[in-house]
């Protein structure tokens, strides 16, 4: 899974369409405002310090003057609870660094996320966190590596996860903007690890803007590896309504399956989510409520489970 932005492309499209400028009436910043701004500044400074340090290994060109920067930075804290499972508290960080002393099309990436989803390049909307599922034991870990973009469509990555476990990725991504405002995206990722061998993830998404503040999206993904030759797949259909000023309401239907499980779907669910700023436009709060019907195999009866998720996302 690549470094995910704070908002999906679809969400960002809606927010940009209905954003409206209003005069500021805020008074002097409170102690809470100052503390939040200081925390964000500290995270940004740490990321820039790391980027400058790594970039200095490859040359003497000043970092900022050469166009060095940190992009796609996000720090998130999420608390998830699905009925029948233990509560899951996770802290995730993702950022991408442009290194002027290395090469123009080469970048450094670093973060803390679900390692299995990072390696397989699982779409963010289909991750365990976005499906209100607790993380697999010891799956969340730090990762880092170097990527090389050949062009806008082809990308190669060599990374390390959980210490010294290496992995490699080759990714192809293309987006088509259709005349009726439909947006179609195709992504193919090949990956290689010592544990899984060679693997592949194919993801397809389609979104349509129905009104300036209303859109719908379908996304599907399938993954297979040498270690697990049976295909694991998942899909989502959602409707998204923007209320302006970074406020977004979503209603999503999800389905997941595993070849050889003996059942058509190992998990079915409906969920709704509300996202809005809690401090300016760079600290976002999210509330998610869902109802799911999991059935991992044919021997287990399908059960019913409610789920709740709370999250904070800081955009750097």
Describe the SSE topology:
Layout (H helix, E strand, L loop, with lengths): L8 H10 L12 H26 L12 E14 L5 E11 L7 E9 H6 L19 E10 L4 E8 L3 E13 L4 E12 L3 E15 L2 E12 L6 E11 L5 E11 L8 E13 L3 E10 L12 E11 L1
Antiparallel strand pairs: 1-2, 1-14, 2-3, 3-4, 4-5, 5-6, 6-7, 7-8, 8-9, 9-10, 10-11, 11-12, 12-13, 13-14
Structural write-up:
The chain is mainly β and 316 residues long. It has a single domain, classed as Porin (Beta Barrel). The protein is 13% helix and 51% strand. It contains three helices and 14 strands. Strands 1-2-3-4-5-6-7-8-9-10-11-12-13-14 form a 14-stranded antiparallel beta barrel. A hairpin with a 3-residue loop joins strand 5 and strand 6. It starts with 8 loop residues before the first helix and ends with a strand. The N terminus is likely disordered.
Give, in spatial order, the strands making up the sheet with the most strands. Answer: 1-2-3-4-5-6-7-8-9-10-11-12-13-14
CATH class: Mainly Beta
Distance separating the two termini: 19 Å
Number of domains: 1
Describe the largest sheet: 14 strands, antiparallel, barrel
Global shape: globular
For the CA atoms, what is the radius of gyration? Answer: 20 Å
- The CATH architecture: Beta Barrel
Averaged pLDDT, please?
Answer: 82
* CATH fold call: Porin
- The percentage of residues in β strands lies in over 45%
Helix/strand class:
mainly beta
In the CATH hierarchy, what is the superfamily? Answer: monomeric porin ompg
Number of helices: 3
